[in-house]
Inverse folding.
């Protein structure tokens, strides 16, 4: 019984860590490109004026 509950807790910790890793990958890869696109669009609109 005790080992079973420990296994469940450990599994949750691993999946939580994995999910956090996926979120970090998403932010480090997607967010800079997204922000770069916004900055380019803003600079483009300022240059046109």
């Amino acid at each position: 019984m005790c080992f079973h509950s420990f296994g469940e807790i450990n599994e949750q910790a691993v999946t939580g860590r994995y999910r956090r890793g996926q979120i970090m990958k998403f932010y480090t890869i997607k967010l800079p490109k997204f922000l770069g696109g916004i900055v380019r669009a803003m600079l483009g609109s300022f240059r046109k004026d």
Notes: The first helix runs from residue 2 to 48. The chain has a mean pLDDT of 75. The chain has one helix and no strands.
